[in-house]
Amino acid sequence: MNRLSGLKPQPVWDYFEEICMIPRLSKNEGKIRKYLLKFAENHKLEAKEDSTGNILIVRPASPGFSNVKTVVLQSHMDMVGEKNAEFPHDWSKDPIIPHIEDGWVTARGTTLGADDGIGIACQLAILADPEFKSGRIECLFTVDEETGMTGAMNLNPDFFEGRTLLNLDSEDEGIIFIGCAGGIDTVGELEYENENIEEGVEGLMISVTGLKGGHSGDEIHKGFGNSVKIMARILRNLNGRFSISLFSFDGGNLRNAIPREAFAVIGTEKQHKKAIIEWINDFEKTINDEIGDIENELQISVKDIDPEGSAIDPSARDKLINLLTCCPHGVIGWSREMEGLVETSTNLASVKFSGNKKIIIVSTQRSSVESLKKEAAMTVEACFRLAGASVEHSDGYPGWKPNTRSEILQVTTESYKRLFGKEPLVKAIHAGLECGLFYEKFKGIDMVSFGPTIRGAHTPAEKIGIETVRMFWDLLRDVIINIPAS
């Protein structure tokens, strides 16, 4: 069943719906890679795959266009897989179910994967159009952008030829991006011992749900609630008042998403249960007073549960609560060079109990200034080490320095003005784009990034504006047509 039939441009939406049928979480892009290679074979286009899994499909220059510069169209194959807790979905096999809602396309119960499925769809529609006349086009599809950018990181310098690149992974129509933040992950491991619980201790499951979550770069400045921080605040207060036991803490899922949900199982003496429940109900009102204007679906609930296994020892419990209380989250600094741009931030992304008496805490730092990115990571590391946790940092990825004199920026700006009769905004983005790695790896490369409007990326609320897809498509085609001669 074609749920998106009738939407324009139809070829783009047809390919997008096909892509929605293909599981493609980060590091599990095998099926989408096969799909892309089969597409190239069916359309008799040159294609190749590198050892990392990146794919390049080449459309030769149209007759009379052989002197035009090669342009690289770039997107990433993988997507973030988030779903509502109660929604049944197997990310290894189940399709995404898109549907139309008030001028947007969204999904039922899961992320939509418009980030960056819509970029892929536009590339395929360009490649497949026999009437489109242009110079040589190289379509680059990278793997694992969402969890490490390992595809872009491992690209060989000779994998593609073009040095003019259009990144199709932005989420704000009307904005041309010419710079991005670099990022690094900081991961802490806190060890614990099991605690023998006295007879008569009863269990309670505490849930923090209904938060917006969102992209930890694009939306870190919006003041959305962080379920991990909220749960830590609950546990700190309960432990101070009632000396609770802690059996589990499960909050957040992805390093690049603001955590939407968190769950904890605590133990308490029977005589304290009523007071704990009353305190949690009062605290929900407190949080709603603080952020209810932004987080109008926030719910904090508590229910009886039989605690399984053992609680963690009191020392580890206190260390974890203090660590999560101390660990920063949100905007650290704003750019002095570009108004309204977050310069440095950190996202307390997840807390998980592993099966080997360790608690794993993940935090991600971003900055458009390399030294401040490292300083933010050191601040988080200090919080972790004060709690006795071991710490590791990822290799990270670099930022992309803006070039306001860029040739492709001028071409894209003129195309936008010609098509829509208004000036586009030119900005840098606080999210990490693969352009940062291209900028570092391919000297002299000239790039811009643009896309349609996507909201709620990395959450089940993800949606893409239908009209903005048409504008994105028109702009992409016009920019390619106006690529200058080499």
Give a description of the structure.
The protein is 30% helix and 27% strand. The two termini are 45 Å apart. The strands form six sheets. A six-stranded mixed beta sheet has the order 1-2-6-3-7-21, covered by helices on one side. It has a five-stranded antiparallel beta sheet with strand order 16-17-18-9-19, covered by helices on one side. The protein contains eleven helices and 23 strands. It is of the alpha+beta class.
A few lines on this structure:
With 486 residues, this protein is an alpha+beta fold. The protein is built from eleven helices and 23 strands.
Describe the secondary structure blueprint for this structure:
Layout: H1 10-20, H2 30-42, E1 46-49, E2 55-59, E3 71-76, E4 98-101, E5 104-107, H3 114-128, E6 137-142, H4 150-153, E7 164-167, E8 175-180, E9 182-191, E10 194-195, E11 201-209, H5 227-242, E12 245-251, E13 262-269, H6 273-291, E14 299-305, E15 311-312, H7 314-326, E16 330-334, E17 342-353, E18 358-367, H8 370-386, E19 390-393, H9 407-420, E20 425-429, H10 435-441, E21 446-449, E22 454-455, E23 463-465, H11 466-481
Parallel strand pairs: 3-6, 3-7, 7-21, 8-20
Antiparallel strand pairs: 1-2, 2-6, 4-5, 5-23, 9-18, 9-19, 10-15, 11-13, 11-14, 12-13, 16-17, 17-18, 22-23
Helix pairs in contact: 1-3, 5-7, 9-11
